[in-house]
Write a structure and sequence with these properties.
Blueprint: E1 5-11, H1 15-27, E2 30-36, H2 40-49, E3 54-56, H3 59-62, E4 68-71, H4 78-85, E5 94-97, H5 103-112, E6 120-121, E7 123-125, E8 146-149, H6 157-169, E9 173-176, H7 179-205, H8 210-216, H9 219-225, H10 232-241, H11 243-265, H12 269-293
Helix pairs in contact: 4-5, 7-11
Length: about 290
């Protein structure tokens, strides 16, 4: 297929992998999609919905037919999956992923696919939801969304270009950076907010009057805590995979909280207002850019 691929193997058929498959199907850039996963019910649902054309619970067997493999599972599962497919992966097959951390994925590619690094293209689509499973897959998820590629030094230009073209066909805007830069940036703007939301809801749930608090929680609580409904296993793996960068961000956030606590204890309304004004201005400016881009 010109600019496309004949067989795509999606390992982990949920929101991210399933939506990628649907977008490429609609664009006419893939002939066949094989869905691979641990849960047969989810795979059968993906088949019924037309997200995939075939299903398998054996990654080693499925990738024998692949022109491209997309690993769309929690990052903690990728090592075992790469080990399972390493001996059967065709030499021409491009291997990419959708993980939220990249330095660990690069290390896994080097460990398990040392002879195929020219065809490895780590990637991170910046699109998410608290929904999961095959029923979460949707057309248009990647329209005007960013996708970051973090190619290895060994990655061939044609493999990177192929992955980039396919994401662009999904409607995404592709950016390239190093794995280390990616992990530092996303520790600050993605991983830390998830930890904060989980910690806050856990704190409220542990209060003696938790039920009373939840009874009166409204839009502020909803907006701040939406991401605490995200997949626990996935965010456990992301947190551990990006531990060093995330610990640095937690230290910085703790310092910011300490500053607020000191201002509040001192009754320093002017100081509090200055912090709030600065934060509000930054948030408004970001939102204006986000709306223009989207």
């Amino acid at each position: 297929m010109q600019q496309g691929i004949r067989t795509l193997v999606v390992v982990g058929v949920g929101l991210i992998g399933g939506s990628f498959a649907l977008a490429l199907k609609r664009a006419g850039l893939v002939e066949r999609v094989i869905g691979v996963g641990r849960t047969l019910d989810n795979l059968q649902r993906a088949l019924q919905l037309g997200v995939v054309d075939e299903i398998s619970q054996d990654p080693g067997a499925a990738v024998q037919q692949a022109d491209m493999v997309l690993l769309a599972t929690p990052v903690g599962q990728m090592g075992a999956l790469l080990a399972a497919m390493a001996d059967t992966l065709p030499a021409h097959t491009i291997v990419t992923d959708a993980g939220s951390t990249k330095s660990d994925v690069v290390a896994l590619f080097r460990q398990h696919l040392p002879n195929q690094l020219a065809r490895c293209v780590p990637a991170h689509p910046i699109a998410g939801s608290d929904l999961s499973g095959a029923t979460a897959a949707q057309y248009g998820l990647y329209e005007n969304r960013k996708v970051v590629l973090t190619p290895l030094a060994e990655t061939s230009a044609d493999a990177s270009e192929q992955v980039s073209r396919l994401w662009q066909a999904c409607g995404a805007k592709v950016h390239v950076m190093s794995a280390a830069e990616h992990d530092a940036v996303f520790a600050a703007v993605s991983h830390l907010p998830h930890l904060l939301a989980f910690a806050y809801v856990d704190m409220i749930a542990g209060k003696d009057d938790a039920a009373r608090c939840f009874d009166f929680a409204a839009t502020g609580f909803r907006d701040f805590t939406r991401i605490a409904g995200s997949h626990p296993e996935m965010w456990r793996d992301i947190s551990l995979a990006n531990r060093d960068a995330l610990l640095m961000e937690l230290d910085a956030y703790r310092a910011a909280l300490d500053r607020l606590q000191a201002l509040l204890a001192a009754g320093d309304g002017e100081g509090l207002a200055e912090v709030f004004d600065t934060a509000r201005a930054a948030r408004v400016a970001w939102n204006q850019r986000f709306v223009r881009q989207g």
